[in-house]
Amino acid sequence: MLTGTNLLWLGDFNQSLVLNEIRSKESISRVELAERTGLTAQTVSNIVRRLLDAGLVLEAGRRSSRGGKRATMLRLNAESCYAVGLHIDPARTTLVVTDLRGRVVTRVSRRTPAARGPGRVIGALVRAVHQIVERSGVPADRVLGIGVATPGPIDPGGGLVVEPPNLPGWHSVPLRESLESGTGLPVVLDNDATAATIGERWAGGEARSADMAFLYFGTGIGGGLVLGGRPYRGISKNAGEFGHITVVVGGRECRCGNRGCLETYLSPHAIIDDAARRRGEEPPRLPRGSAATVEYYGRVCRAAAAGEEDALAVIEAAADHLGHAVVTLTNILDVPMVVLGGWGISGIGDLYRRAVTEAAATQPIARAMRKTRVELSITGDDAAAVGAASMVLHTTYAPRFGGPAG
Amino acid sequence: MLTGTNLLWLGDFNQSLVLNEIRSKESISRVELAERTGLTAQTVSNIVRRLLDAGLVLEAGRRSSRGGKRATMLRLNAESCYAVGLHIDPARTTLVVTDLRGRVVTRVSRRTPAARGPGRVIGALVRAVHQIVERSGVPADRVLGIGVATPGPIDPGGGLVVEPPNLPGWHSVPLRESLESGTGLPVVLDNDATAATIGERWAGGEARSADMAFLYFGTGIGGGLVLGGRPYRGISKNAGEFGHITVVVGGRECRCGNRGCLETYLSPHAIIDDAARRRGEEPPRLPRGSAATVEYYGRVCRAAAAGEEDALAVIEAAADHLGHAVVTLTNILDVPMVVLGGWGISGIGDLYRRAVTEAAATQPIARAMRKTRVELSITGDDAAAVGAASMVLHTTYAPRFGGPAG
DNA sequence: CATGATTACTAAAGAATGTGGATAAAGACA
DNA sequence: TGTCTTTATCCACATTCTTTAGTAATCATG
């Protein structure tokens, strides 16, 4: 249900809008802001003054003349505030500190000590957050909050990790509350694929479309959608389960109970099994999300990237399935951009990108009306952690419509 | 790019919001409106006064007491304005007049005289519009405009029918301009599937979710999306091409150039061919979108509905494919409601609905988190025509955000 | 039947916002 | 030096929503 709006909201909205425009450019003048936002010069002037007072924006010299008075350029003060991003994956936990632009200032990655149970892990996380903030040299009062990305279904409202399939023993852990009381900072929580999507949009600026689908390759395959400029999560926060697009009817059995899901052909486990079988070996029974899995999968990807025949054949077969899934996706959603990211594509990203680009250019029904650009994530392997930090910035500074935005 | 907002817009927005709430209920009090919209009682009071003055809303008695002063109930004045809907299908042209609620006042259907070429058809359409308005008994000055739904890709901005695959000879016809100058009424134009979606949302009120997918069964299979309460058309207005979801990799060849599209198993043509083959007959080579096709297809559907074994088997096989497509759809979009509509499901709607309900309850990954409701269109066989009329009402009275809403 | 509590609605003043027109400042150009 | 263009700000004004206070209708209760 949409909710009504008021004046305060209107002011905030326009302010966020202006900030967003400044963020998307290296530098921009007031007049250009007025043109791009549709606001009057006077209004922009007032809003910019507020932003300057708040320290979020800086004046940055003057542009070379275009005939009259030279414009005062404005640029984002990326050092005005920061956010902590935390990605808890079954194998590794990654922490980052990013500035307001979404650029990584400091990064730490360590093995996830899940076996010790949630209680002790949370204690360790609180210490890790304090440590990385200290190490980054960022003034503590400029840290806006902590974003947390975890795999699997969560309850973003209550801040619980509901039943992460890859974190045994973590049933309904009140992660948000614990971290908030432990660090004194506000915490936002979402699943890793959604976080990575928001991060891509935030850090990507103009290079990332207002409508895009992000495919996140982790232990499984998830994803997220940005539609009309804002994240779309779906009614139960489960939109973007691209890993369960059916690519082969009656195909491989999936842990979701269905058959032929994309994930059963592209997850690290599937790739590992395919690679082993192709060499006539018995598929190794590695535990889901273990360090050994990551290791083995990395070897296959590197081999494929190096051109080793068997590995390449396996990855190319996977890429073919991925292409079909993206075609279905663009037929349904008509997005102009598909971004591939997550640690699961490191090494093979370009192989995937080429295959998907080819499929998207030749198969969707509307291929004549729009080109679908296929890009690799600019946030790299740490997409989820950077995205988690971006969620904090996004909730604080993104222009939002009234009502419970999806 | 989002655009800035101003005060006039804010007022209009809140007014639309209130009108929308009134529309969605049979009757509602000012206090309830305040609760539901988040506006203050005073603001609601002011907005309601404007709506009463404009004649869009009526006071309708008082509610039985809840302890204090009895509330003055408000209800939509459905007779305050009307819209004309026009659906130009290859086989038939349907005209409707609907009231502000989206209810059909008058309806006319006739054979589409496409063979005579666009020029003469448009002249006939102008006359038909005048006729139906007169016949409906609606005061001419209360008709807000004309909505036109046509199959295939169009350019809603320029008002052209670009290259409708089923209307030979109609290349870039300036339909909007011609109709506007011929009738003196504003014209909005969109494809039939999108129109049907908007109509379903408008006429459905509370019974239709703010997030839903509408599958439109006509000559082909199209559809539309409502996400976050507003229609989502995609970047090139081609979202919702559900007919081209791949359901069988390497399957039947589709006119889109791809293989195994849903449409190749569920379109009237596909069903006709399947039914003929099953009876050992040669598939009849009927022209696409011809009256003979509609006739033959109707026979198969009626036979299936009557329980005739061969026809039933064909429809059940089709329903199975449909189920798979909807599972993919819900995995991607996490919508709580899927609506089936269009003349293509008349007779077999319940068969399809049962199959899809079953699939949606057992196969999507998030099936435990949300139930997907599967419903049949409330606008019936005339979904596209009613939807076309609703587009007029929607563009006039739906709350809209600033900027180019998708 | 008077009193007070509850619910529904409205009037008037106040605060926040964007708009439009005028003004000021800085530089380009003849 | 003077005029024009571009950029940015100042001030009066209109519009919106909110706050505060007040009116109106109904019910419960003694």
TrEMBL record, chains A, B:
Taxonomy of the source species: Bacteria, Bacillati, Actinomycetota, Actinomycetes, Streptosporangiales
InterPro entries: ATPase_NBD (IPR043129), Cro/C1-type_HTH (IPR001387), HTH_MarR-typ (IPR000835), ROK (IPR000600), WH-like_DNA-bd_sf (IPR036388), WH_DNA-bd_sf (IPR036390)
Alphabetic keyword roster: Kinase, Transferase
Family designation: Belongs to the ROK (NagC/XylR) family.
The protein's name in its UniProt record: Putative NBD/HSP70 family sugar kinase
A Pfam family reported for this protein in Swiss-Prot or TrEMBL: ROK
Keyword presence, Transferase: yes
Keyword Transferase: yes
Gene3D superfamilies: 3.30.420.40, Winged helix-like DNA-binding domain superfamily/Winged helix DNA-binding domain
GO terms assigned for molecular function: DNA-binding transcription factor activity; kinase activity
PANTHER family: BIFUNCTIONAL UDP-N-ACETYLGLUCOSAMINE 2-EPIMERASE_N-ACETYLMANNOSAMINE KINASE, ROK (REPRESSOR, ORF, KINASE) FAMILY
Residue stretches making up the HTH cro/C1-type domain: 19-47
